Amino acid sequence: MRSLTEREHNVIFQTYKRLPIEIASASGCRITATNGAVYLDFLGGIAVNALGHSHPHVVQNVIDQAQRYMHVSNFFYQEPQIRLAELLCEASGYQRVFFTNSGAEATDGAIKMARRYGSKAARTDVIGFTGGFHGRTYGALSIMDKPLYKEGMGPFLPNTLVLPYNSVDAITSHVNANTCAIMLEFVQGEGGLRDATPEFVDALVVAQRDHGVLIIADEVQAGIGRTGTFFSFERYNIKPDIVICAKAMGGGLPLGAMLATEEAAALFDRGMHGTTYGGNAVACAAGIAVLEEVRDGLMEHVRHIGSYLHTRLLEVQRKHPSVVLEIRGRGCMQGVVLSVDAAPFVQALLERGVIANATAGTVIRLVPPYIITEADVDAFVAALSDVVAKP
Ligand SMILES: Cc1ncc(COP(=O)(O)O)c(C=O)c1O
Q1: What's the pLDDT tens digit per position in 52-102?
Q2: 109 in ligand 1 pocket by Cβ < 6 Å?
Q3: Sign of dihedral through CA atoms 382, 387, 388, 389?
Q4: CA 291 to CA 55: how far, in whole Å?
Q5: For residue 132, which atom of ligand 1 is closest to its CA?
């Protein structure tokens, strides 16, 4: 029989650089390959599997909902969608939710809201930042700077700017009466786990308060409790007008959302924005399980296990300061910054049965399920210590 690898090469667009693992099953924080190898998963489906793989609460909700009905469309009032929106509003303090299928779709919806806002005041400019990642749609790419993602695909949206992340000067000199919105990640996931500096966030607050600029927080990767607070921006003194989320929210099913204040949500009138699948009943049922677990103690666990992970990673750094330069991030979103290319280290970790990924060239990104235990952290740290000692 031909392997999955061979068959994939024949029929799938060759856009993904896949790991050499053919999946048999996954449960909790472990992935089992068809050859029987078992891996410790510190990638969590790229920050998706907050409750781990096939968590019983998610599975039960999905089965129950699939048996009731799966899809009826947004022509109807539906319990799972409305309940999930209530949980999101309770957890976040926002008043309104629009469900999407993905993070990128939420990004584009937020940019459309920004332009609606701008159209009333003759403002057009939407600002993003270097190192940011917001998805692969035209709206998202228009406010991102990574050349590989944009090569030969222009022209992009007009009146968009990509400014240097964490540059107060850039905000001061580019935000003006023409600016309608600024979108950012308060901790850049793909950009190497970089935090927004407090001074930079202060400049955003000035733009919002004194210049009427909408602030859009991209919490697709960092949101839903991953950093130990429901949203990562809660560490700062800012309340964004619009928040987008996805990934962890769907418990493994495709689901995203825009959350907004009452005022911002009113920018869309009936019929102005929509999607066939967004808020799908089964995806929302899975999301309810995630939100309930996060509400009922899991976020405290993220804080505890995150600080344990951080402490253990700092020990590795102290032992190998010439290879490990810095430990970034918090909760279940941390980065090990190396002095060299991270890719060979990620490969070496894989050979020791641990899945992580390399981002921003020299950073090993850790976005494990929230349910990891101290024993899982110890197993990861043992593998990491081994590879940094003899890569
Ligand atoms: C911060 C951030 N925003 C947006 C996206 C895009 O989400 P999706 O891949 O679901 O379109 C991602 C995906 O990695 C992300 O990390």
Answers
A1: 999 999 999 999 999 999 999 999 999 999 999 999 999 999 999 999 999
A2: no
A3: positive
A4: 13
A5: 1
